[in-house]
């Protein structure tokens, strides 16, 4: 819900049976890096007053991005600090590098491990861009052997687009699966459609999640595709999918 205040986003989510709210951290949004700490309690209260938890902060740091380490590490630390202040258990980040590039990410993630441990916040690297499959994303987090601190966010679309079947994604991630983003698209178009109206094998995703307990979040990219339906439309479809499969025990 780009541009929508947190209070209103939380109300819409609650009205559609959600348990939590994933908050986008972006300069165009109410919650952004540099948000004064005096505002943190207010934002957190707005979510809690709707009967929800903050499920995750969606950040845009890229752990494999070319260039010096310091700006990336600083952004990661700022995201972790913000998550801690808002009561979010996790922060989503991207790979954003070159296929097969691992070392740069390991150095940067390693630099913030103490911050993650001290705050209790989990860093989630999304299956995206340079590391779209579960197998590829796992290489960025598995060396730390600390899935409670560093894990993978499984975006339903990208592994499938890259030819990785949902059962394999789930199998290779194992205990390093930290979060699932529900999303659907057609074979030929990246524009999101309500869950169940596209070609992503969401039933197979659900089957593979039966033994897993964690956050399942609808990803609806109106920030990038402003012409798609308002969020209540896909939320209703997402709720139908969730209640049919109940991936969380």
TrEMBL record:
Keyword Lyase on entry: no
A Pfam family of this chain:
AP_endonuc_2
Q: Which residues form a coiled coil?
A: none
* SUPFAM superfamilies assigned to the protein according to its UniProt record, in alphabetical order: Xylose isomerase-like
What one GO molecular function would you report for this record? Answer: isomerase activity
Gene3D superfamilies from the xrefs? Answer: Divalent-metal-dependent TIM barrel enzymes
Which parts of the sequence belong to the Xylose isomerase-like TIM barrel domain? 11-242
The keyword Isomerase is assigned to this record: yes
Endpoints of the signal sequence: none
For this UniProt record, give its keywords in alphabetical order, as a comma-separated list: Isomerase
Give the protein name, as stated in the record: Xylose isomerase
């Amino acid at each position: 819900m780009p541009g929508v205040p947190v209070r209103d986003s939380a109300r819409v989510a609650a009205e559609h049976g959600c348990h939590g709210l994933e908050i986008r951290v972006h300069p165009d949004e109410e919650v952004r890096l540099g948000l004064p700490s005096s505002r943190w309690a207010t934002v957190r209260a707005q979510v809690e007053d709707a009967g929800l938890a903050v499920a995750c902060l969606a950040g845009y740091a890229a752990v494999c991005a070319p260039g010096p380490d310091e700006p990336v590490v600083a952004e990661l630390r700022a995201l972790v600090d913000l998550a801690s202040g808002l009561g979010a258990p996790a922060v989503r980040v991207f790979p954003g590098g070159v296929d097969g590039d691992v070392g740069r990410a390991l150095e940067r993630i390693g630099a913030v491990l103490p911050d993650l441990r001290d705050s209790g916040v989990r860093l989630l690297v999304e299956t995206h861009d340079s590391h779209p499959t579960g197998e590829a994303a796992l290489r960025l987090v598995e060396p730390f052997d600390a899935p409670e601190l560093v894990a993978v966010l499984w975006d339903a679309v990208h592994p499938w687009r890259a030819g990785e079947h949902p059962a394999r994604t789930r199998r290779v991630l194992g205990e390093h699966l930290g979060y699932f983003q529900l999303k659907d698209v057609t074979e030929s178009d990246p524009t999101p459609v309500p869950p169940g109206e596209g070609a992503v094998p969401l039933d197979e995703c659900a089957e593979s999640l039966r033994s897993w307990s964690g956050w399942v979040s609808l990803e609806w990219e109106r920030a990038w595709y402003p012409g798609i339906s308002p969020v209540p439309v896909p939320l209703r479809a997402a709720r139908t999918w969730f209640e049919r499969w109940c991936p969380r025990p």
